[in-house]
Amino acid sequence: xxSSEGDRRRRGGQLELWTxxxxxxxxxxxxxxxxxxxxxxxxxNEPKDGAQVKVEPSGIQKLIQEKAxxxxxxxxxxxxxxxxNVVRPSQLTGTLDAxxxxxxxxxxxxxxxxxLLGQLKPPSGAGRQADIRGRASSDTLRQVYGDFxxxxxxxxxxxxxxxxxxxxxxxxxRVNEGFGQSLLRIKSLDLWRVYIKHVRATNRxxxxxxSNAIKQAYEFTLDHLGTDINSGPLWMEYLFFLQxxxxxxxxxxxxxxxxxxxxxxxxxxxxxxxxxIPTHSLEALWREYDKFENxxxxxxxxxxxxxxxxxxxxxxxxxxxxxxxxxxxxxxxLATPPGKSHGQYKQQKLWTSLIAFxxxxxxxxxxxxxxxxxELVYNQCLLCLYHFPEIWYEYATWHASTGDKERASEVFKRxxxxxxxCTILSFAxxxxxxxxxxxxxxxxxxxxxxxxxxxxxxxxxxxVWIQYMRFLRRTEGASSSRKLFLRARxxxxxxxxxxxxxxxxxxxxxxxxxxxxxxxxxGLKSFLKETExxxxxxxxxxxxxxxxxxxxxxERALTVAQGEGARTIWNEFLKxxxxxxxxxxxxxxxxxxxxxxxxxxxxxPDELLKRPGYSIGLLLLRYSVNGMLPCSEKTLGHLQAVxxxxxxxxxxxxxxxxxxxxxEQPREVIKTEGGQPSNTLPSALSNLLDxxxxxxxxxxxxxxAAEVDSVLQVISSLDFKLLRxxxxxxxxxxxxxxxxxxxxxxxxxxxxxRMRQMERARRGR
Length: 765
Fold this sequence. Notes:
Layout: E1 10-11, E2 14-20, E3 23-28, H1 58-73, H2 89-105, H3 110-120, H4 132-135, H5 138-151, H6 156-168, H7 172-182, H8 189-201, H9 208-225, H10 232-243, H11 247-251, H12 259-274, H13 282-296, H14 298-326, H15 344-359, H16 367-384, H17 389-401, H18 405-418, H19 423-435, H20 439-451, H21 458-475, H22 478-490, H23 497-510, H24 513-527, H25 531-543, H26 547-558, H27 563-580, H28 583-601, H29 605-609, H30 614-623, H31 633-641, H32 646-649, H33 683-691, H34 705-716, H35 720-727, H36 746-749, H37 752-764
Antiparallel strand pairs: 1-2, 2-3
Helix pairs in contact: 1-2, 1-5, 2-3, 5-6, 6-7, 6-8, 8-9, 9-10, 10-12, 12-13, 13-14, 15-16, 17-18, 18-19, 19-20, 19-21, 20-21, 21-22, 21-23, 22-23, 23-24, 24-25, 25-26, 26-27, 27-28, 35-37
């Protein structure tokens, strides 16, 4: 029998589930295709980032063909139906064709797939016209579900659909295989309820074997999903099954002569587990448990209830916090790559918060019980965030931190299967295996990567070879690393990085200068035009003090470099001369560089001489060392303001560029009443300007001269004396508490604009 802790058993790679009246049937847990094309296919390689993937969903194509054929062969008059229930064959075919086109463009078009699955649902109620499922063949429907699960392998809706289809067709072997492939990977209550339904449908509850099969199916499910916040109805269903079962049938073999006592113990044990788990049905379960105990023995019930009251209260408290963590989480969302659907990153934030809460162990559980809860929430998170590598890595490392190295290794394998193009997970998995002294397992991970290296991006292909060489150098020595380098050289589309990496490995680990230089020179035969490779080689030569060969390398590279690559080589060559050459060679190279860049930019020399700061810019390049400027930041800001060409000279950039000099606009002259220009500002305005803070204390953008002039002109045009007289303020002083002059109109009191002007005038004094 299945133990209360144990829920799965591995014997020879098989998972044993209770699925038939004859006993346990071994179901393969590996994701192998079902026979006859009836399973969900294994997950194929994910597309490269940014790549346009075109998928031929053959199942959808078959549906379209079948609907078109059915439409062409219809020769009788359809019976009259109500307009709202009619689905014309031509409309159906057009809908499927549109869905197929959308999925070909974007295989992760969630709306198109959900619409198609909605069409595949069986008709609800008699008298309504059959939908696609009522008219499509079973093989076609299997193929459609297979296409869907190839794209969304963690969809519980997809697995439910194909399992219900196989069950309705009486394909029990395929149903068993489907459960073996999906149950332990998809911790969804909806899918596991289908499993329980299948077990109950294939076993008689009035026989010992059948009754025990149903009981153990419930226990198997509750061991995996019993801590789900939505698992309350499942606990209720299990308790109802126990309470209404025949004790002699269910416990006759295990507790002969004590069947009723065994039944009582089983019900009490199930209740006591259920009322200590934070679920939406916690209070209802507690009431049922109280009723159950009082129905058995009122005197004993009080003591039992009191003993469990503390755990129940803790669960109620944690439930309120857990409920808040679950708010906003969409547990049934289809898993799409990052950026493919709206709200993904919000969902990731919510899931991360929930996982952190569970890992904090708010229920103060033992290690094994805590592991069950955290394991479940990670599995449920990955149903939606299947394409997020950081979740997989965190999941694997959590297992490793708890000491379960085997489970961590399994999670890494699942992660690589889910995201084959994310090589960083493969590298991490190899290092994890190597840390356990499992060198062969780690090598197998790298070899599996090399099998499909052609499907990866060019830069990623080079990373695979490089990381594998480093791994072999660490674990097996120089000989294995060199053999892999020879394999990499012969591989199609290899990059220059494998040469520089191999050369540096030889120098850093073996101090073999000759071998390192030979590898660099070997790479120059193919990658002399690669600027990055030339600079790597030059940097290596300079680090070894081989100045003459570094200078020769730069000269060789300049003979073939073009475009921006040539500009970079010239700049780096000049920096090299500043550091390692004498003054005469530096001046000569400056002249050559100037002529070469003029030709490269196709700039007229006379036009170039008109650029301000040409010489001073070159001095900045000459005297800059490791980001340290040969002048103050203020001076550099000035040079940037007068447009010293940073791109040409490679000057360091300031965090915020200073204000560029602007052309002064002629200010509008303020005139007096007689029309004569006034050379002096009014005293009130002068006082106001004196009270303003200095310019260097202002932050943010400065107003333009025209804006300042317009404000000053408005202020200077105000008649402050008249304002004071209208408001009843004597010219010699006064304040806001003075009464207004008699005769002032009431509407002026409510004039907010004038009141503000008066207040500003008072503050100006």
